[in-house]
Amino acid sequence: MTELTLLKKLISFDSQSFKTNKPIVDFIAGLFFPKQCRITELKKDDVKLYNLEVRFPGKKSSKPFIFSGHTDTVPTSSRWTRNPFKAQVIGNKLFGLGSTDMKAGLACMIMAALSIKEKPAQDVVFLFDADEEAGCTGGKDFIKRLKFKNAKVVVCEPTDGDLKIGQKGGLEVKVTFGGKAFHSSRTSYEKNLKFNAIQKACRAIVALGALEKKMEKQKSDLFTPPTQAICEIKGGTAANVIPDECSFVINRRLIPVENKEQVLAAIKLVLLAVDPKVKIQETFWGSPNLLNQESELFKMAGRISRSVLNKVGIKVTSGWTQAGLFKKWGDCLIWGPGVLEMAHQADEYCPIDFLTKMTECYKRLIEGNK
Asked: Residue 51's beta-bridge partner residues?
């Protein structure tokens, strides 16, 4: 079996984030001995989800190597021009849903795992989790159940082969303004200020813009400035009824030097000034991550990248990965195959020639760069 054959098979599984991932997990587990695998059933709403751990006990357990990948994909869309679940090769590109994000990474992880024939120097653990694209149910379960110390963690998300040593944190806040519903013909300027929930939300959004301007002045050696955006808004029941409720979601990206509680406090101050009764709910928090370039993991990966990929691209990402969760266990590096710009895109593809090279990188990490 080659990486290409395996990736084609992985793409054939419909593991969109709102569906169960049981078929793909059962397939991956079937490639290994039962004693190496542990499948954990989880539940999100009415959907059953599954985490898979594949373990290779080493001569020592003091500094385990952990490879992480998620089995779900984003939902497909009508913009696809080909069957998203039937892998198609055109030139050096393999098209299919999840080809880049991140079934290419899964394929390389699996092939590296299958190459282990002797007891490794340290424990090696491969984690395949559910729901990364829609809430991190699987990743949070791993963090809750598994205890690792001094680990070296490789998150195999697409990075174009670059060493992504850092990422911004992700904060999502749901804001709900209340008001009073009545016929719009009976309103006035003063009544809109007091009762119109949509207009309250609009005033709050304008006020939040002042925070955005301040963010642009924040400097960092590696990261672009932090960002903030309103990405979802809901309110109103009819064109002639004053809305008694309006909610919107703030998406805030933090650089590592920022403090989440201070950021949240600044947001709350703006919102409460509009309406002291506003409801503020933190719906998601993912920590930022920054790998020390003096760490053993970074130095190993750098040597391997130079040897196998003929480059050492050192970058950070504005997006969020589960490195923000798994850094609890030790040093985290984001490093994998795939074209990052193709993630979450229609007609997603992954360069084929990258697959065997990334597998080789993972194998050398496991072997201690021998």
From this structure: 40
What CATH number is attached to the domain comprising 24? 3.40.630.10
Say which CATH number the domain at 277 has: 3.30.70.360
* Beta-carbon-side half-sphere exposure of residue 53 (alpha carbons within 13 Å): 19
What is the per-residue pLDDT for 235?
A: 97
Domain range for 215? 169-286
CA distances from 144 to 60, 69, 147, 314 (A): 23, 17, 8, 31
* Contact yes or no for 130/21 (Cβ under 8 A): yes
Question: Are 50 and 155 in a shared domain?
Answer: yes
In this structure, the answer to whether residues 180 and 248 fall within a common structural domain is yes
* Domain co-membership, 129 together with 163: yes
Task: Fill in the amino acid letter for 67.
Answer: F
Q: What are the 10-residue block averages of pLDDT along the chain, 370 residues in total?
A: 97 97 98 97 95 96 96 95 97 96 97 96 97 94 96 97 96 97 97 97 97 89 94 96 98 95 97 98 94 97 96 92 96 95 94 96 84
pTM above 0.70, yes or no: yes
Structure-token match 């990422």, residue found: 167
d(CA 198, CA 289) in angstroms, rounded, equals: 36
* Residue 303 to residue 97: CA distance in whole angstroms: 32
